[in-house]
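Ex. 9. Protein: Helix-turn-helix transcriptional regulator.
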Amino acid sequence: MSILSERLRMLREDRDWSQIYVAQKLGLKRSSTYANWEYGIRDPDTETLVRLAQLFGVTTDYLTGASELMHIPELNESDRKLIQAIRSLSPEDKEYVLGFIERIRGK
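Predicted structure tokens for Helix-turn-helix transcriptional regulator:
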């Protein structure tokens, strides 16, 4: 069983939803399509993976196992300002800032 299939099953069961209910919420013609994702027989396409993440209120990275974080943390105002300032930097300055951060973190 894949991480995706395990997480789909867990998220569905945590909500006391049936496979049929999830399939209906996604607009699938057959509930067996969703069941095959949970059993690890097939994987959803990218668009459907996004819809699954939205339905369960988690990130696609969490569903696929790329991250253990279920949700993206909320940013406060100072975080938003910092991100905006970094985006306005030239590519060379961004590279310098990232190198500086890596040195500070000891990488």
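Check your answer against this statement. The chain has two domains: 3-64, 74-107.
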